[in-house]
User: Fold these one by one.
Assistant:
Number 1:
Amino acid sequence: MTAPDDSTVRSASCLRANMVRALLDQDSVTSESVAAAFAAVPRHRFAPEASLDLVYDLHRTVPVKQDAHGLDISVMSAAHLQGVMLEQAAIQPGMNVLEIGSGGYNAALIQELVGGAGAVTTVDIDRDVIDRARRCLDDAGYSQVKTVLADGESGVADGAPYDRIIVTAAAWDIAPSWISGLTDNGRLVVPLTLRGTTRSIAFDRDGEGLLGCSYRLARFVPMQGQGAATEERKELLRDGVAVQSDDARVRLAAQALNHALDTPRLLQWSGAAYDLPDELELYLALNLPRAARLHASHDIVDNGLVEASALLGVPALVTEDSIAYRTRRENQSTGGFESGVVAHGPHAKNLAEQYVELLRTWAHHHRLRGAAEIRYLPGPAASSLPPGSVAKRHGVVAVTWH
Ligand SMILES: C[S@@+](CC[C@H](N)C(=O)[O-])C[C@H]1O[C@@H](n2cnc3c(N)ncnc32)[C@H](O)[C@@H]1O
């Protein structure tokens, strides 16, 4: 790797100082130790082919590798999300940390946090990625970080138990090795996908299982290998409209649902406040009795067929021939927003009523940041689970709301 010239080093240092200030201003970083790590590691040395502006943009990822369809399978994660997850991890000097999903930069940040007495192992399933991470780590002066080529689903036994395991790809489930690979007081930070929406959850060990202590909205490239989410089904209804679900109770009947969208819409307002969108989304996704996710393109939204709430995907309640999903409107009297439901199909009225009831329950009882308590219980799921629980391959995610 060629050494960067003086002006690049100067502008990178300046951009890095600005990045650290902005991470602190936006509360992505709240501790001195994490701020110091971001200030110490030259982020651009881990993406030498990218522009400095992109590398030091807080909210943008830096592409590393795409699949045959051009979809990202490896990126350098956005700095703000790395900051949030490192704060969730609460890493202390001297700790032994495993990172699953590599790139080099985050491992270097972790090395700064654990210091000379600690140890960092980073594992990636992709040879190109791990070789590149190795080169960047050596080039930036972090040769003590251990790099491993393997499927992180099995953990990295050589080095276990770990005080912290940080997963940096979206996981559909929690691999048993991630729990058994932790020390008794260990913490797992993992972007876990629940009914199509992902939260970075910090879990502490709780007997055989895990108890969540914080969660934050997160977006990540998907986990590959043994842990890949084969349970996710996706159906294209028409160009620009798709539904997806991993809920075993849901049958995605593409033709009938597409037909439903052409029938007149039923619009029902809840009278309840719409805010804290990520909190509400998690509540809806886990409490709808037959949950799917509706996605629509800008063209479809612009021509009025589907509401803008579906641009990034919105929790939907579906039957074989009907669908209901959330929308919102300005509330003139409060200055905020009111939630509502759009429904189509022969069962539109019934679905809209069920959905509106959930919007009201959330707004009246749980409209708080951090109101969800998330547990992971390893082992087979009971045949019927309470609302808020999701059966996974190796256990059950059980969420209750305060
Ligand atoms: C968002 S990138 C990691 C970013 C990185 N931590 C950084 O420093 O910015 C996600 C990585 O996870 C890797 N990955 C996906 N599935 C994996 C698995 N089963 N085991 C290990 N790595 C995996 C991908 O190859 C990809 O490089």
Number 2:
Amino acid sequence: MKGTIAYRFETPTYPGNILYLNLISNYSCTNSCVFCGRPKSRKEIGQPNIYEKKAGSSLYLEKKPTVKQALNAIAAKIKPTDNEIAIVGLGEPLLNFLTVEKLLTEIKRKYSVKTRIDTNGTIRCIFKNPAQRLAKAGLDEIRISLNAVSKKEYDKLCNPIFPQAFEELQKFIKDCIKESIETKASFVEDFKRKEIKQSGRKEREKFALSLGIKKKNIIFRKFMKPIKVWGF
Ligand code: SF4
């Protein structure tokens, strides 16, 4: 099955002037969040979730795209009215960090658009100085999934591969702010598991503010149940 590198959401909620990029192979991620809607097994591939339904195509790629492949995909899909290129996909885009870094530089050289990445924010567990490098490459905005106010809550909700993930995530948020990248933090709401004690909205807002996130940049996202009715 061939997934898409460049894709769009064009619903009333998502403006149509953003081109999205998927640079992730095999839906890879360093976390395994309890609320994640990625296909969890090979059997589920091809029965995409709500995110792929909105994207209108599969985002399953067997290999990480190269810079050249991503630039070709942008050139084929970009519209003159586009004002943003967002690196998102399904999984963790910064696992393809070196490509993201080079690609941001090329995007800024070729197009007059804002650049954005949506990430789980644990990239400091793998690369040194990622915020500084992304800022230098031309990143304008980053949306980081924070989801918790303590390591205990984070580990229960996100099941990170790296034990230091929550600590590094907080440092990454502060680094991004220091680098003047517009930094947003998100929390998934309305997801319930009785064995996981979750913080409330007020507590989450207070925690995000304590990391330096501006109030207007705190995002509360409603949990969406995965669906399995969409075929390609
Ligand atoms: S960080 Fe995002 S992609 Fe990764 S497991 Fe969590 S919800 Fe899924």
